[in-house]
Amino acid sequence: MTGSNLLTRIVFDPKDERAYALVRIVFGCIAFLNICDLWDYRETLFSAAGIVPINLDGNRYHLSLFYFLQSSEAVTSYFLFSGMMALLLTFGIIPRVAAICVFVWQVSYSAQLGFVTYGADSAMRVYAFLIMVSPLGACWTIRNVLTKSPSPPAQVPGYGIVLMRIQLAVIYIDTTIVKLASEHWRNGEAFTYYMLSVYSRWKSPLFADWAWLSTACTYGALLLEFLLPILLFVRRTRMVAMFLGISLHLMIAVTSSNLLMFSLAMIPGYLSFLDGRELSQAADRFRFFRRTRLS
Q: How confident is the model over 211-226, as pLDDT tens digits?
């Protein structure tokens, strides 16, 4: 098999449409929660009456629809519209249109707040784009559920899933390189600084007093982030890697005061690693659980 044929097979090999549906549903929920998280700050950060000058970020600002929607009423209306699009994406109602609108929202608010955005915003922007250009199918939409369609899930081109997987791997490769360049990660003190920082939900000197615990947590997190791109692409270790990676981000969400959206933004990438067999097994377990609970 030639290199070009191998690349074509990897990128366009059919994937179970339920994988796309699961990513779509979860990402739509996360996008909606992100809009809700910004709701109270909509006039302060997005309207002309707020604290962000129009030319603060130069020409980058013109990528944002907020450049044209500057009144409080217009900003509020756009928030409501974007929230509705996120819900439509979740429920699979006009999903392509909804995906485009959610991507435009992600670009708009990121361009408006470029000086305070962080990794979660970048990840959500990339996944919004990948969902927008991916096959969306008719699986697990509100129409499909209400009609109780018995048709088996279709096989659709897998390029979107492949790109989502690569994106998650790139995130971990990049963060590993950045952290290895930091003295605090190399000497094992990073977790101490994190637990004493503004990001910590419960600020405590415990990890400063117990240096061995900080060292273990720091090196453990660094080792896991280094291994995840490898373990996720190996079928035999994939489920373990998904469990460890999602657990890591749940721990970040629990121990941090303002990194919940970052933890949630990483979930769609993990879900893209589920294939048809694993999705079928999960669906069978869910049906069994539902039958036993109803009986």
A: 888 889 899 999 999 9
* pLDDT averaged over every residue in the chain: 85
- How many whole angstroms separate alpha carbon 221 and alpha carbon 227? 10
pTM: 0.85
Question: Taking a C-beta distance cutoff of 8 angstroms, is the pair 64, 119 a contact?
Answer: no
Q: Which two tokens stand for residue 243?
A: 């469990």
Domain ranges across the chain: 14-157, 161-295
pLDDT at 61 over 60: no
Please report, for residues 152, 169, 187, the alpha-carbon distance to residue 181 in angstroms, rounded to integers and kept in the order given. Answer: 49, 19, 11
Rounded distance, CA 6 to CA 144, Å?
Answer: 35
Residue 260's closest CA among 181, 204, 199, 206? 199
DSSP strands (E only) in the chain: 15-16, 155-156
Q: Rounded to whole angstroms, how far apart are CA atoms 112 and 81?
A: 17
